[in-house]
Amino acid sequence: MTTTAEPQETKYTGKSQQRIEDPRLLTGHGTYIDDITVPRMIEGAVLRSPVAHARITRIDVSKAAELPGVFAVITGNDLVEFAGEQPVIWSVIPEQRIARAHALATDTVRWVGQGVAAVAAVDRYVAEDALELIEVDYEPLPVVADLEQALAPDAPKLYEDWPDNISGSMTFPAGDADAAFAEADVVVGASFRHHAGYGCSIETRGCIANWDVFAGKLDMWLGTQAPNLARDLLAQVLSLPVDKIRVRTPDLGGGFGLKFDFYPDEIIAAILSRRTKRPVKLLEDRQESFVSSSRARDMRHDFEMALRSDGTIIGLRGTAYAVLGGALGTVGSGPPWASVLACMGPYKIPNQELTLKAVMTNRSPYGSYRGWGMPKANIVHERLIEFAARKLGMSRIDLRRMNFPTPEEFPYFSGAAFTYDSGRYADCLDLATSAVNERGWNVRQREGREAGRSIGIGYGFHTEVGAFGPSRVLNMVGLDHSGFDEVRIRMDSTGKVTVLSGQSAMGQGTHTTYAQLAADGLGVPIEDVTIVTGDTESCPYTGYGTGGSRAATLGGAAIVNASGRLKSKILRIGAELLEANPDDLEISDGRVSVRGAADASVSTADIGYSAYRMLNGRLPESETPTLEEIDVFDPANMTTSYGCTALLVEVDRQTGAVTLLDCLQAHDAGVIINPLLADGQLAGGLAQAFGGGLFEEFVYDEDGQINTASFMDYLLPSATDIPPFHFYHQETPAPHIPGGMKGLGEAGTIAGVSVVASAIDDALSDLGVAVTEFPMTPPRLLELIRAAQSAGVTA
Amino acid sequence: MSDKHTVTVTVTVNGQVYTGDCEPRMTLADFLRHECGLTGTHLGCEHGVCGACTVLLDDVAARSCLTFAVQADGARITTVEGLAEGEQLNTLQKSFQEHHGLQCGFCTSGMLMCATELLRENPNPTETEVREGISGVLCRCTGYDSIVKSVMAAAGDQRDAVSEAGSAR
């Protein structure tokens, strides 16, 4: 276990510090990718396939190339001259067939929206004019539009040399699942379907590539959550040395995992830049985003749970089907794999048999979205446990509680992959149920029902894997990347502090929370701390990127460690200046003083001056000049935060519409750096999950055509759709993370889908409705209600 | 490109007069961002749903992505860059900082402009009125609750400021 070095003072940590990011962003002074203009810059646009599966028989770009204002037009054949196939960094299934594609299609298109050609022109208006002049002939191929078609015995194949459309399959066994199911008193099961959606940051993706062959450098501005990974992958695809590539990230208008992945657009922009000898800006517009940003969530889970009559869960088994696209995205089958590894959730289940099947379809590539598989894992265990409670006639609260590991049982191995570090699950459950009582929901439900309204209270318990993750473990399970984080912390010649981090700021307030940790770690005012992120040339390398609830946990731990060591050096220099023993000194508010004798003190400015400029007589002979520490933190284990969410809803039985009335969550993410920001993360994640639970869906027709490629059809929740939120925290520190943080960026998205179903079921408990499909749109719910009503009449 | 038809547009943005030549198809959002250099107005969908591009056009909230620059010729426009009072955030902006009414900041320009209009028309809104008032701007980060709190608190602060000014008179 790693030694825990707690910050000695917590003037800032644990406080609702206002964000240092805000004044800039509130005044329109943020700088997002489209706000950046570099000298000589031109703009690109991509021609995307209008069909889901076809052979390209002819492309004629001549008319487009002749349009005034056009600098270059490229096709897949031009691109392969300089670029290899798009990378896949997760190969989670042994012997998986990895279907790769180039950034522009060369002979076959396998999804609507796959890039076919690209233009660079004087501006985006002209570039889009030019796209209309490109002629492409497509010879249609049979389309595999959905999962069921892909699995059919006579299904057309996406890849002719494969035996079927299955990219790979694997099973995680624990104990003896067959025996458990044979001896079970009660078995509950269902087929759960979460349809496709995506992260949908309000800012779309974009980049500016400047590939200057004469300078021998590729300089890229990129709206990414993983600049170091992007640099490595640019190097890999373009056969360039990493040191010749610089990736800078501007302000990100939301990330949500979607901007973790590495897209064809980055390569297309680079090639266009090389061809035109000009920097090229390439932005995805909103309509494109529905086919060009990572599709996510799209899975079916056929699972069942075995229990004894007293409620003890003894087995879980099933098959999860990942609806992959026409080629693998950056993270391959990673999120579906996580949905399987996490599907036992917070419950002790000794016997498991969990199978993943990754299936290719003519849809856009599958990729990252906040929660990364875990929302669907949560659907499996939270829906099944409620179905079991119903069948056993037990309280759904008691059934959950009796199957938790007790605090003494941690670290607890969950059976498939994860070892949960610490937790007080039952306390958290009780915190939520007592909050529901305090807020009067039970009374509201009773009174509402008496008035003929269908009011329901939903519950959901979630676990969230954070601090992702121990590098060697990640490598062993198929990640071609690491999981550590590196931080550089520096006090300058005036005693002010700069922290350089490889993490990305995408709205979660990383700069503020890092400043809080550094200010406490060094004993300086928070105003004296500057955080720098977003430049591979000056910022440290981080494994992976900003995802997997890594920023507070791993970056935070590295800051705690590095500032602890830097503080020791500051005190040693202070001791020289004060002619005292370092052990007798303390530092507070930027002044080093003898403990108990505040009049004998020096400032951090004095320390900085002694370390950088006036060394003679001030810097101890044994010390090297400068004040700088680096910490590389590779966790011994991941963290597991958890929470219990409750949701109050009303269902309209005439329309199938669901109104979200109120929401609360009891949560434990270990040490909370900033409660204000923590609540913001939880609320935002829940709102996204409610979108996925009720509204958001990529709808495809039988030709694989997407019918929801605008905000008129893909429904993001608005302020009138989302309820108020109330959060309750308990803190069980992560024992292996300096600082004790567990992370919480994904909690809301994991918890929020199944709880919608739980609440709807409760509102319709007299009908016995069981929600298993998401989003549960009004037409779908109406169908369930009518089926239940007619079954009731028949009975 | 030489035969491109252009028009001259003059607008007053945040009190500053800007004149520029543009194609008739140029949107007001692009005119503000590219011709005026005011990149605080953001584009999230370019089809009039997300509301990030909301500006005040002659004091009325308008989607600048669905407005052509030529339609705004002669108009008085307020963008997010025009809200701060000198070097200080205004009451609404301060309230957003205090209540964590923003995360990534991308929709925030639209939210602030929308809420500015809302509070001018209804200085004493209920929570429901605030939710309805801002429902034309989509936020993906916050879950809206903190934005609602920010606007409600700003309304309270504005009322306090008015009554203080009244009692000082």
Quick structural overview:
Chain A is an alpha+beta fold. Chain A contains 21 helices and 29 strands.
Defining key terms:
heterodimer, A: 795 residues, alpha+beta, Aldehyde Oxidoreductase, domain 4, 7-stranded mixed β-sheet, 29 strands, globular, disordered N terminus, B: alpha+beta, DNA polymerase, domain 1, 2 domains, 5 helices
In words, what does this structure look like?
- The complex is a heterodimer of chains A (795) and B (169).
- Chain A is an alpha+beta fold and 795 residues long.
- Chain A folds into 3 domains: 22-30 and 484-633, Aldehyde Oxidoreductase, domain 4 (2-Layer Sandwich), CATH 3.30.365.10; 34-142 and 204-292, Aldehyde oxidase/xanthine dehydrogenase, a/b hammerhead (Aldehyde Oxidoreductase, domain 3), CATH 3.90.1170; 299-468 and 637-794, Aldehyde oxidase/xanthine dehydrogenase, molybdopterin binding domain (Aldehyde Oxidoreductase, domain 4, 2-Layer Sandwich).
- In chain A, 29% of the residues lie in helices and 24% in strands.
- Chain A has 21 helices and 29 strands.
- Chain A has a 7-stranded mixed sheet with strand order 3-5-1-12-9-10-11. Chain A has a 6-stranded mixed sheet with strand order 7-15-14-13-8-29, with helices on both faces. In chain A, strands 18-26-27-28 form a 4-stranded mixed sheet, sandwiched between helices.
- In chain A, a hairpin with a 6-residue loop joins strand 26 (639-651) and strand 27.
- By secondary structure, chain B is of the alpha+beta class.
- Chain B has 2 domains: 7-82, Ubiquitin-like (UB roll); 91-161, DNA polymerase, domain 1 (Orthogonal Bundle).
- Chain B has 5 helices and 5 strands.
- Chain B has helices spanning 28-35, 91-98, 108-121, 127-133, 145-168; strands at residues 7-13, 16-22, 54-57, 60-63, 76-78.
- In chain B, strands 2-1-5-3-4 form a 5-stranded mixed sheet, sandwiched between helices.
- In chain B, strand 3 (54-57) and strand 4 form a beta hairpin.
- In chain B, helix 2 packs across helix 5.
- The model of chain B has no long low-confidence stretch (mean pLDDT 95).
- The chains are: A alpha+beta (795), B alpha+beta (169).
- Chains A and B meet through helix 1 and helix 19 of A and helix 2, helix 3, helix 4 and helix 5 of B.
